[in-house]
């Protein structure tokens, strides 16, 4: 399943001091390597906002340029508003951008990769799938198969 990566994950991965040690950053690198990462314009905007140094802004813009924004349609904004109203009715609050992320993920059949705890609450009443960091200690199904023991003839 392709993965819509939220601002919180990108931010962790782009911080040089934490880059190598953070499991979420390592997972993002893995997802990038196997071409499963997706982004939408509002996430790109959040990442670029507040970068004061023009050279740093340029580097970040170039880095993010490797990823094409998923197209957002009018129906995504309507769905986001419906999601907002549904969650609000259940006492769950979130930002307009968060609900737009949920709407885009549902329409494009993506999981959402985030460290934002609000999405755990959204998942209780919205049809979203949250991506979890892959545990490296677990063998993949293909690797865990053992061949049958050899029998002596």
Structure description:
- With 153 residues, the protein is of the alpha/beta class.
- It has a single domain, classed as 5'-nuclease (Rossmann fold), CATH 3.40.50.1010.
- It is 52% helix and 7% strand.
- It is built from 9 helices and 4 strands, in the order βαααβααααβαβα.
- It has a 4-stranded parallel β-sheet with strand order 2-1-3-4.
- The longest helix has 16 residues, at 74-89.
- The radius of gyration is 19 Å and the shape is globular.
Largest sheet report: 4 strands, parallel
Q: What is the CATH architecture term? A: 3-Layer(aba) Sandwich
Counted up, domains total 1
In CATH's first tier, which class applies? Alpha Beta
Structural class based on helices, strands and sheet pairing: alpha/beta
The proportion of residues forming helix, as a percent range, comes to: 40-55%
CATH superfamily: 5'-nuclease
User: What is the distance, rounded to the nearest whole angstrom, between the alpha carbons of the first and last residues?
Assistant: 46 Å
Q: Count every helix, treating DSSP H or I runs of 4 or more residues as helices.
A: 9
Q: List segments where confidence is low: pLDDT < 50 over at least 5 consecutive residues.
A: 137-153
CATH topology: Rossmann fold
How much of the residues is beta strand, in percent?
5-15%
Q: Over all CA atoms, what is the radius of gyration?
A: 19 Å
Q: Write down the secondary-structure element order.
A: EHHHEHHHHEHEH
Mean pLDDT: 88
- What's the total count of β strands? 4
Q: Which sequence of strands runs across the widest sheet?
A: 2-1-3-4
- Silhouette: globular
């Amino acid at each position: 399943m392709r993965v819509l990566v939220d601002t919180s994950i990108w931010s962790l991965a782009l911080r040089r001091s934490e880059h190598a040690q953070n499991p979420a950053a390592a997972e993002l690198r893995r997802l990038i390597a196997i071409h499963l990462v997706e982004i939408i314009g509002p996430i790109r905007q959040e990442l670029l906002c507040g970068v004061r140094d023009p050279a740093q802004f340029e580097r970040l813009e170039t880095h993010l340029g490797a990823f094409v924004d998923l197209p957002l349609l009018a129906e995504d904004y309507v769905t986001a508003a419906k999601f907002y109203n549904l969650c609000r009715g259940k006492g769950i609050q979130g930002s307009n951008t968060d609900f737009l992320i949920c709407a885009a993920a549902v329409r494009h059949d993506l999981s959402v990769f985030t460290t934002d705890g609000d999405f755990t609450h959204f998942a209780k009443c919205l049809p979203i799938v949250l991506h979890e960091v892959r545990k490296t200690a677990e063998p993949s199904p293909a690797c865990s198969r053992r061949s049958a023991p050899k029998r002596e003839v």
